[in-house]
């Protein structure tokens, strides 16, 4: 592995990153743009091929905690430490919408996925979700060209009082399930250590998978029915769904705070305190 390009922003910390989606017409070509969210509330779009910053926006007054492109790459969704979610256009540099539904709790996840235009009884070709650290998940249907953004579902997951001696609670994480359209997967601090599958059509939890510990990271393979779950106990678990067969992997020097399948599903990236590991993923 070699360093291809490096971008530096003085006196600011990069808090989150996202690759711009590849156009469908050029599927197989690598995306050449990345968006980064910073501790001063700014967003910067970088061109890899031109090795330069193309755009800077300032949609937040506080540090960013999550960022994502819309599925067509025409909008940037960003979440802040104060729970506000901003929708900005990289074409105009303008923030077109600010959502305050999660205000008061840091945004932990933003994710977008495609949908049929009138699916779920609402217009728009895109579903997206926002998750905040207070165990709430909002799901939205959007048609950005028509300035439509409609709340489709609002989830709140119960939890007991935080245990004494625990410095911080496990994160609240959610993701759309690639192999079950209309289903999202959730992990977080709760009554039980488990993965929850929630159906947006049935409006209820339809499946639960027990875990040995509370999860600190989550990723679902886009190529096969596999789910990767990281734990604070330096453990990575690979789950086969729906069989629930589990394989555990050691090798991390600290909590597995990030796991991410590659878009091809052939590789899994995990990170702990001082180590980044790349795994060959099965079934891809």
Brief digest:
The chain is mainly beta and 284 residues long. The chain has no helices and 23 strands. The protein is globular.
From the structure above, extract its key features:
47% strand, 23 strands, mainly beta, 4-stranded antiparallel sheet, single chain, 284 residues, globular
Any overview of this molecule?
The chain is globular and about 45 Å long. The strands form six sheets. The protein has a four-stranded antiparallel β-sheet, with no helix packed on it. It has a four-stranded antiparallel β-sheet with strand order 5-6-7-8, with no helix packed on it. It has a four-stranded antiparallel β-sheet with strand order 9-10-11-12, with no helix packed on it. Helices cover about 0% and strands about 45% of the residues. The chain has strands at about 15-20, 35-40, 45, 50-55, 65-70, 75-80, 85-90, 95-100, 105-115, 125-130, 135-145, 150-155, 175, 185, 195-200, 205-210, 215-220, 225-230, 235-240, 245-250, 260, 265-270, 275-280. It is built from no helices and 23 strands. With about 280 residues, it is mainly β.
């Amino acid at each position: 592995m070699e360093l291809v390009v490096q971008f530096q922003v003085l006196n600011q910390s990069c808090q989150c990153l996202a690759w711009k989606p590849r156009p469908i017409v050029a599927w197989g070509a690598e995306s050449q743009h990345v968006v980064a969210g910073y501790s001063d509330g700014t967003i910067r779009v970088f061109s890899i091929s031109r090795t330069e910053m193309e755009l800077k926006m300032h949609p937040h007054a506080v540090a960013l905690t999550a960022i994502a492109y819309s599925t067509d790459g025409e909008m940037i969704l960003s979440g802040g430490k104060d729970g506000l979610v901003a929708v900005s256009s990289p074409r105009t540099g303008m923030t077109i919408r600010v959502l305050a539904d999660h205000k008061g709790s840091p945004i932990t996840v933003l994710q977008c996925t495609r949908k049929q235009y009138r699916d779920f009884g609402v217009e728009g070709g895109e579903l997206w979700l926002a998750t905040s650290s207070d165990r709430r998940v909002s799901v939205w249907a959007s048609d950005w060209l028509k300035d439509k953004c409609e709340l489709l579902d609002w989830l709140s997951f119960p939890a007991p009082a935080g245990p004494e001696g625990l410095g911080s609670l496990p994160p609240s994480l959610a993701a759309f399930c690639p192999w079950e359209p209309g289903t999202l997967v959730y992990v977080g601090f709760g009554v039980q250590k488990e993965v929850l599958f929630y159906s947006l059509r049935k409006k209820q939890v339809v499946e639960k998978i027990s875990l040995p510990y509370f999860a600190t990271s989550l990723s679902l393979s886009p190529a096969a029915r596999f789910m990767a779950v990281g734990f604070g106990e330096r453990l990575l678990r690979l789950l086969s769904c729906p069989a629930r067969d589990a394989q555990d992997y050691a090798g991390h020097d600290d909590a597995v705070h990030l796991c991410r399948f590659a878009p091809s599903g052939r590789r899994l990236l995990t990170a702990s305190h001082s180590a980044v590991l790349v795994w060959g993923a099965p079934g891809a």
